[in-house]
Amino acid sequence: xxxxxxxxxxxxxxxxxxxxxxxxxxxxxxxxxxxxxxxxxxxxxxxxxxxxxxxxxxxxxxxxxxxxxxxxxxxxxxxxxxxxxxxxxxxxxxxxxxxxxxxxxxxxxxxxxxxxxxxxxxxxxxxxxxxxxxxxxxxxxxxxxxxxxxxxxxxxxxxxxxxxxxxxxxxxxxxxxxxxxxxxxxxxxxxxxxxxxxxxxxxxxxxxxxxxxxxxxxxxxxxxxxxxxxxxxxxxxxxxxxxxxxxxxxxxx
Length: 253
Known about the structure:
This protein is mainly beta. The chain is 5% helix and 37% strand. It has four domains: 9-50; 66-122, no CATH class; 138-193, no CATH class; 199-252, no CATH class. The two termini are 71 Å apart.
């Protein structure tokens, strides 16, 4: 590299250093953030990497990509993205990008724009549309308590082999029975006929048990509380808790 210049910043062996100058022997003197001085000579000087844009100990090198607001209003542009120190693209609201553009004067490009975080930029994109569910689509009935209807269909599984489309028949003779009773069968219906998911609630008494000797308290959620000697514990019902089951999971209501 060229001769280090006094007053410039450099990277040396993983640390940022400030070039103080050269001594009478032509060796380079660098200063560390902690105040330590090093005298570099020969190959050690070649290990210096110049940081021309560095302004001090707190300076951070510029990273890419960068995201900036668009100057277009009401159009399809969502934001602009700087890919490097010399190239940028415009990102449309659907997520597509224009061809790469080059810029010379960064200040001209970014005039009147505001820098965005990646999350802020991505939030400006249109949300993908979820495909509408087909009401006529066949869906499997998995609730074992489901009571079969005329609109339901069944198929028989033989030797664990996948059932074929030709094997489906309407649930005429099995109407009124439950899915759980159809051993070796699978059941389906049109999505529009799929029963709403069931919710089940259970209310359980809430008790507080207090030890008379040390005052320690324990809360229980159960129907009855027995086995606590009256001369040692006091048992008091303080309310109740309701739990709701949905899709096989219980949560406190």
